[in-house]
Design a protein that fits this description.
The structure holds two protein chains of two kinds. By secondary structure, chain A is of the alpha+beta class. In chain A, 31% of the residues lie in helices and 25% in strands. Chain A has an eight-stranded mixed beta sheet with strand order 5-4-3-6-2-1-7-8. In chain A, strands 9, 10, 11, 12, 13 and 14 form a six-stranded mixed beta sheet that branches. A five-stranded mixed beta sheet of chain A has the order 18-21-16-15-23. Chain A is globular. About 2% of the residues of chain A have low confidence. Chain B is an alpha/beta fold. Chain B has a six-stranded mixed beta sheet with strand order 10-7-13-12-14-15, with helices on both faces. In chain B, strands 9-8-11 form a three-stranded antiparallel beta sheet. Chain B has a two-stranded antiparallel sheet with strand order 1-4. The chains are: A alpha+beta, B alpha/beta. At the A-B interface, α13 and α14 of A face α1 and α2 of B.
């Protein structure tokens, strides 16, 4: 064995380019096999397109095409109607890894690291040797720039092969064409599922998928409203790491520690800043740039020990229950489910990172009864298709005992079986993925707990729905009895005896002995009035001339023997606009309408109705009615009002 | 022939509608009470010597959907009966079931339901089905023996029929109406009536001329006997003072045939005194006979076993004879048929088995 000197060893040390690193570790980015490679290529392109459209306030219209060449090579085309990319930026965005606008910003977005699309181009280059073609147009009336580029993996820089300008009909947008080696036969199903799932959590997007054989699938837009723009926030003291804290202090413009804390972190006011400094035993006037490691350590520790308000939740952009329900309804039309239930948790925080959980549950119809329920997982509106077993959402679902809610689950643990689809959406400024391929969410107790709470709420709603159905069925029989059979007995016996038909009111109240509340919901197409435009984004163009008015009609019949007077509540979706309400309610809030009903004499009825605008047909398909100041056991068709 | 007076029937029928109408007027939820028609509610009537319904009653109330439907159907059925009486027509139970198809909400789900309701009406009004101008689908069974029957035929003539000389091998056919306005017994010369479960055995006894050789009147029961067959046996036995013997297969279902002839059926306990012949005796085949005569057997099925067990709690089978025989059969786990006696030849039943069994009863000397 020959001895090697340190000098000789030093000669071998050299910098590894990022591109070179990923070239060897492509599995980390989701290119591990040829099936995954196809999906990842589509996914990165679509995620980018959706992000850029939303940032620019454009309703996304995304086109995905896959052409299958021989030798297992596919050409993937992704085109959007987004804001486009200026000429100078094109090589950077597509030809450099770890180049992006979203990495440093703390707010909810799909892509974060700036690896995605350039990794796809790199993968294509490595497997096919072909260049990627990017075309982008930023403004109506300007030409489109078409760039062919490759990635220089040593320098992590784009190599522009050709650049020309052309004409494109689109007002603006970006189109990426990249050839990759991929398994089209096996991968197409994943691509389809991914696009369908994406469409569910992005109801404002229209996605068209053209397959190799010419088949075109259109995942339609079901909402005209662009998601609320998430607002960028500063880091929260609970979530900041020591290294980041030091780096922030070195770069700050603040001269004093107190102003540094107050201006560079969220949720820090005068009081909390003083508290943090006192806890850390630091002078508020210290220059942050001159602080020692020990001082930073003390500050970092102090942050964790004082009470700080949760960060602002404006940085989150949840989908909303109405839209989740509408999307699920639209995408599960063929299943004709019995009901769709959604739940939305209030925002919460883990390690200073805001997050929010939304859940949905589709039940019944033609879904198979004896297979495990399908779980659709989403993080920041991106479907998670792999590693279901390793995801915190799955373990949260598995830890709920579903047997009480009509699903099969041996030993009360694990993924339940039954005719259901579960949807879970995690929005956060920082989704804690288990790995860079972003397929499973790590085991964060706060997230697990919120997912559990969301699904428990769904389960409770399921139970309530089933209970209501059974109770209705039972009382429906009584209703038949008093409305059909009893009058018939009276009529027939009177006829046999040639006497007048007797009065039934009193007997009816004896038999029923309840207050009966029945409702129907109707939808009416109307010409759009100024009333609705408040709910529609600015992007509404002339095509959408009509709207839907949801009309809910409630019949309250007093079949008790005594007069009844009580308050009635009807829940309404937050995003609806209330139209005509009759009789005059005593209160209307974002969530409900409240009536104080006049005294109803025995055997008499009262009609109650309200109209909702700003919803699609079917968004509001079940009344949720509550009563107050009456024994709820006397009431069929409404539950006890538990307060706001 | 004198027209039957239906005015009482109409009064009784109207009383149901009146009861319901009065309930409406008083703002009471309409209801009708009737005796509970199950095994648990039959009691032995010492005066009549038959099993009748006990004191338990069932309330049919419009409180429940089912009860309300029952009341509605009851009203419809009484109205229909009244109409039939008025237009002097009658209908079969099956015809009524089909007519009820037009009763809208009151229509029946099955003929079983309409038959049961017709029986309920009998129970409520103390009338007989015949009073309601309703007749069963099947008429009674066959009779052969030294008996003269005078029957009023459909062209309103009285016709005398000798049940040996005037009939073929199939015998005299019992009509559905066997009341006095229809048939009367004009002359009889026989020592006993033998009621036979199966047609095969009836024909065997006919072929072997058992009716003449043993001065017997042979009656075919055709399985569970129709009301008219039971009423026929009852009238003949009472009016002419002739003992009745029942000859069936050896299984729980056959025991029930005997019970309905002798004590009355649970379903028709309200008219047991018209239908049952309490002096009837069970001739065989008994479970003991299976052992004594070494008859070919089949194993009891689960249904058989359950039926036997149920009979152990049936008040009609409470005496020591039946308790002993039923327990014996459960122990053997076997059943047998009347015609199994053919094991010993075609004449064995008439030459050996029946004479021996008759001797046991003491009705006929050996």
């Amino acid at each position: 064995m020959t001895k090697v000197t340190a000098q000789e060893l030093a000669k071998k040390q050299k910098e590894i380019s990022v591109a070179e690193f990923f070239e060897r570790n492509k599995h980390i980015l989701g290119f591990g096999n040829q099936t995954r490679a196809l999906l990842t290529s589509v996914k990165e392109g679509v995620d980018n397109s959706l992000d850029s459209c939303e940032e620019a306030g454009i309703l996304p219209d995304i086109y995905v095409e896959i052409n299958n060449h021989e030798d297992g090579e596919c050409k993937v085309i992704i085109e959007d109607n987004g804001p486009g990319i200026i000429n100078q930026q094109i090589p950077h965005i597509f030809g450099r890894l770890l180049y992006g606008s979203r990495f440093h910003a703390i707010r909810q977005s799909r892509g974060q690291q700036g690896i995605g699309i350039s990794a796809v181009i790199l993968y294509g280059q490595l497997t096919t040797g072909k260049h990627a073609k990017i075309q982008s147009k930023i403004e109506e009336g300007r030409p489109v720039t078409v760039v062919e580029l490759a990635i220089d993996t040593n320098k992590n820089r784009a190599e522009v092969i050709s650049r020309k300008t052309d004409h494109w009909d689109k007002p603006s947008g970006t189109r990426v064409e990249v050839s990759v080696v991929a398994d089209y036969k096996r991968g197409r199903r994943f691509v389809y599922d991914y696009l369908q799932s994406t469409s569910i959590v992005n109801p404002h997007a229209q996605i068209t998928f053209k397959e190799h054989d010419g088949t075109v699938h259109v995942f339609e837009r079901t909402s005209e409203v662009i998601p609320k723009k998430s607002i960028e926030i500063k880091p929260h003291p609970y979530g900041v790491e020591l290294g980041t804290l030091i780096k922030m202090a070195k770069n700050t413009k603040s001269r004093k520690l107190s102003s540094f804390i107050k201006s560079e972190f969220s949720s820090m006011g005068d009081r909390t800043t003083i508290a943090a400094c006192e806890k850390a035993g630091l002078d508020r006037d210290l220059n942050p740039r001159n602080m020692t490691r020990e001082q930073f350590l003390a500050l970092h520790k102090a942050f964790q020990e004082i009470k700080i308000m949760a960060p602002s939740m404006d940085c989150l952009s949840p989908i909303g229950e109405t839209l989740i329900k509408r999307s699920l309804k639209h995408e599960t039309k063929e299943i004709s489910p019995e009901f769709i239930i959604t739940a939305s948790r209030p925002p919460s925080v883990y390690s200073g990172n805001p997050f929010q959980i939304e859940a949905g549950l589709v039940y019944g119809g033609t879904l198979p009864k004896d297979t495990p329920v399908q779980i659709m997982r989403f993080a920041n509106r991106v479907p998670l298709l792999y590693q279901q077993g390793g995801c915190v959402t799955t373990s949260a679902i598995s830890s709920i005992d579903w047997r009480r809610y009509g699903l099969d689950q041996p030993s009360g643990k694990g993924i339940p079986s039954g005719p259901a689809i579960f949807l879970v959406h995690v929005s956060s400024t920082q989704i804690p993925f288990t790995s860079e391929s972003k397929e499973a969410i790590a085991d964060v107790p706060e997230i697990e707990n919120e997912v559990k709470l969301a699904f428990r709420e769904c389960a409770r709603k399921v139970q309530k729905h089933i209970y209501k159905k059974v109770r209705r069925q039972k009382t429906r029989e009584k209703f038949d009895l008093i409305t059909k059979i009893l009058p018939e007995i009276a009529k027939k016996s009177a006829k046999m005896l040639e006497k007048p038909v007797p009065m039934l009111d009193e007997i009816i109240t004896k038999i029923m002995d309840v207050v009966w509340i029945e409702d129907i919901i109707e939808y009416e197409k109307i010409k759009r009035t100024p009333l609705q435009t408040t709910l529609v984004g600015e992007n509404l163009d002339g095509q959408q001339q009509t709207g839907i008015i949801t009309k809910s009609k409630i019949l309250v019949a007093n079949y008790k023997r005594t007069p009844q007077q009580f308050n009635l509540y009807a829940l309404i979706p937050e995003d609806a606009v209330v139209g005509t309400v009759e009789p005059k309610p005593i209160k209307i809030t974002n969530n409900y309408i409240k009536w104080k009903l006049n005294t109803i004499p025995p055997a008499k009825k009262v009609d109650v109705s309200f109209e909702l605008a700003g919803l699609d047909k079917g968004d509001f398909d079940e009344n949720d009615l509550y009563v107050e100041q009456i024994n709820p056991a006397y009431v069929i068709g409404a539950d006890k009002w538990e307060g706001d | 022939m004198v027209e039957k007076d239906y005015s009482k029937v109409i009064t009784k029928i109207d009383s149901i509608a009146e009861k319901i109408y009065r309930d409406f007027e008083k703002a009471t939820i309409p209801f009708v009470n009737l005796p509970t028609r199950t095994k648990s509610n039959i009691l032995f009537d010492n005066k009549l010597n038959v099993w009748k319904y006990g004191k338990n009653t069932t309330e049919r109330s419009a409180k429940s959907l089912d009860g309300a439907y029952m009341l509605l159907r009851t009203i419809y059925m009484t109205d229909f009966i009244k109409e039939m009486i008025n237009i002097k027509k009658s209908s079969t139970l099956r015809e009524m079931y089909y007519i009820s198809e037009g009763w809208d909400l009151a229509k029946f789900g099955s003929q079983q339901e309409s038959n049961l309701l017709a029986e309920d009406l009998e129970v409520i009004t103390n009338c007989m089905r015949e009073d309601f101008k309703l007749r069963p689908e099947e008429d009674g069974a066959r009779v052969i023996g030294n008996l003269i029957i005078e029957e009023v035929t459909r062209n309103n003539k009285k016709k005398r029929i000798h049940c040996q000389d005037d009939v073929g091998d199939a015998g005299y056919s019992i009509p559905y109406n066997v009341e006095k306005e229809k048939i009367n017994f004009k002359g009889v010369d026989a020592d006993f009536i033998i009621a036979i479960e199966t047609g095969g055995m009836f024909d065997r006894l006919v072929e072997n001329e058992f009716d003449t050789s043993h001065r017997a009147i042979l009656v075919h029961l055709k399985g569970q006997p129709a009301r008219s067959t039971r009423r026929f046996i009852k009238r003949l036995s009472c009016e002419k003072n002739i003992p009745v013997l029942v000859f069936t297969d050896c299984d729980p279902w056959s025991f029930r045939i005997f019970a309905s002839v002798a004590y009355g059926a649970i379903k028709t306990a309200h008219i047991s005194e018209y239908l049952a012949t309490p002096s009837s005796q069970y001739l065989g085949v008994t479970p003991s006979d299976i052992e004594n005569y070494k008859l070919p057997t089949d194993s009891l099925t689960t249904e058989d076993i359950n039926a036997l067990k149920s009979e152990l709690t049936d008040p009609r089978f409470k005496d020591s004879f039946w308790k002993g025989e039923i327990k014996l059969q459960l122990k053997m786990g076997k059943k047998s048929e009347q015609q199994a006696l053919a094991k010993y030849g075609l004449d064995y039943v008439t030459d050996t088995y029946l004479p021996e069994k008759l001797a046991e009863t003491g009705i006929v000397k050996k």
